[in-house]
């Protein structure tokens, strides 16, 4: 995950939490719900980026394994 993605996701989580607290303090249920949704959206983006990174890592490992296998066959 890039630094920009981390910053953007953190921004969503912090802004969402702030809106949620503001909604609780003022009694504005809509603002509170908006904040919760934004906070969850930031967390979901983190999880998605982590999953994408894991898939990328596994794909690179698989490609390397295939290349190693081909190199070993060429040596025989």
From TrEMBL:
SUPFAM superfamilies: Hypothetical protein YjbJ. InterPro entries: CsbD, YjbJ_sf. This is CsbD family protein. Residues 5-57 form the CsbD-like domain. Residues 1-30 are annotated as: Disordered. It comes from the Bacteria. Pfam families: CsbD. Belongs to the UPF0337 (CsbD) family.
């Amino acid at each position: 995950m890039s630094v920009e993605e981390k910053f953007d996701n953190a921004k969503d989580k912090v802004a969402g939490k702030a809106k949620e607290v503001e909604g609780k303090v003022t009694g504005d249920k809509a603002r509170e719900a908006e904040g919760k949704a934004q906070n969850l959206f930031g967390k979901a983006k983190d999880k998605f980026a982590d999953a994408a990174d894991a898939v990328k890592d596994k794909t690179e490992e698989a490609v390397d394994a295939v290349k190693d296998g081909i190199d070993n066959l060429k040596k025989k």
